[in-house]
Structure formats: C-alpha cells, structure tokens
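Chapter review. Work through the record for threonine-phosphate decarboxylase before attempting the end-of-chapter questions.
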Amino acid sequence: MQHGGNITRYQAEWGWRREDLADFSANLNPLGPPHSVMQAIREALSAIADYPDPHGNRVLSALAAEWHLPENRFLLGNGAAELIFLAMRLLRPKTIATLAPAFREYEQAARLEGAEILRIPLRAENGFLPEADQILPVLAKADLLVLANPNNPTGRCVPPDTLGELLQATKKTGTWMLVDEAFLDFLPDDEKRSLIPHIDSHHKLIVIRSLTKFYSIPGIRIGYLAAAGHLIKRLRQLQVPWSVNSLAQAAAVAALSDEGFRLKTLEWLAIERQYLMEQLVSRGYEVVPSDANFLLVWRPDIDIEQLWPQLAGKGLFVRDCRSFAGLDGTYFRIAIRSREENERLLWALP
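Structure tokens for threonine-phosphate decarboxylase:
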C-alpha cells in the first residue's frame, strides 16, 4: 500500500536531512504539533512505567463534552486506520460501495473480510464532487456505503443536502454507512457538517475521526470512532487491549481543549489555500476546489514519473496519485504548507 509521508524513505534514498526537506505528500498541519500537546506529552512521560488506561476515559470524557453525547458512544483507536479495519471486522460486509478516487484503506480492509468492491466513479468534469444521483442507485447492491468527508485525494466535501439524502436512503435500504471525517476539522463549520450527532437516530451509522492531521501528530497514533452504544460495546470486544498508549491519550486531551490552535489553523488555511490555488492556476495547472488542507493538481503534460524525482532532488516530496482509482500520472496531490515551503514548491514546478 503506497502512502505519502514516508520521511525515512525520503531521507535514505535522497540524502536529505529532515530539516531541509519539505514534505507535501502527507496532509499534515504545518502549524502543529501545538505547544499544548507537546507539553502534555512531556508531562506524561513518567506514565510509560504503567499500563495505559484501557479505555482512555479522560479522552472519552473530553469527547463527550465536545459532542454532548454519552461517553459510551465513543471508542479510541491507534489512529483512524485501526478503526477502519476494526469496523470492517465487525460488519464483515459482502459488498461495499465506495467513491473513486478515495483512500485505499477502505478497500483493503473490506477485502480482508472477503467483501466485493463497488466503485462509484467521481466525475473529473464536475470537480470530483460526490453527488446523490451517482450514489443512491448503488445502495440496493451494497451492505456498506463508505464515504470520506472531505474526500481524499480530492478534498471535496459531500454537500450537506446529499448527506441528508444518503442518511435517509440508507435507513430505508438497511445499508450500513461508514463516514471518515479525518479532515473535517479543517472546516470552520465542522460540527454542523459532522454526522456524529446522528449516531443515536441511525443505528447503522459509524463515524471515524483522526487527531493526526489537524494536530500534526502522526507518530503518536490516535483517532476515535463514534457509533451507537451497542456497537461500541461490540467493537471494544474485538479490539486489541491497550490499543492507545498513555502519551497518545495525554496528547488527545490537550488537543481537544486547544481552541486557540484551532482558530489559528483555520485562519492560516483560508489564506494559504487560496494563495496556493491561485499561484498554481496562474502556472497552467488545474486545481480541484478543495475544502481540506490539500490540493489535487492536474496538467495534461505532467508525467509524475519524471516530475517526482525532479522535485525529490530539490528536497520536495509530493504525492504520486497513480495508486488512487481513476487517477493517472498527470495528477499529483500536495498538502498546503507554510508560505515559505509553498513558494519553494512553486519555484520548482515546471
């Protein structure tokens, strides 16, 4: 499985020191990790001499307060990836429907459970926007609908009206709905867009969130899942004990309470995303309108097999998108970084 953010590989193969390379291949917030999170990790170091809280009750309490739901509606995981695989293990669908292009872990996790994959191809001519008229006809054929909101690698959100239609339709068809909201934190109205408030009215709804991207802590590994209480109980029985370590739990509590960092990030992203999009368009690239902290970029004369090593030789690493269904070597994905890093990339692009 190909991923971005492989810093160890970039350093080993290209000889760059970590401080000299700019990683646009991983969709991480360049403002993080926040000071509050680093401080919490330092203060929690002595806790590594003890086993971690098996359920992460301090984090569950923080999540319950944030979402105004009981603690037993949440499950912590060793990153969102663990929770995706855990949900598939619980549901064991015969057939899943998923968007294309999309994060490949959904298909990998489903195939491990023997599921057939139904891909819903998003239209490039429509900016890869997920539309109800494409998704609704597939529901009768699938046990599980998997959506990312915003989608990766396109950065497009499912329109709220479409989400509402899908919620109602899946109730009628009895289709499970798994929604990955790993990048929804990057939207200022994320709490209004989230489906977490619907978990008690839709008992076949599972929502997964990550703290990795927004707070830039991929090495810590922590995410959470929201679902009806009886589903959380069953998932916990399937989960490996002590899945989330003490440092990750401390980091999560600090992150969830750092409103200042959240506001600073949203202000930065609104400015830098617009700047980077405009600069790319002025250079002849087409950029998918993104709601997230990354951009899917296309130009017909681009060949990623040539472009990737050219950029890597300058310490710049972008995401080769050929592993995403429906995308070829004329596409690449870039995370939105600091102004200095963004300008460095713009200077290097053909």
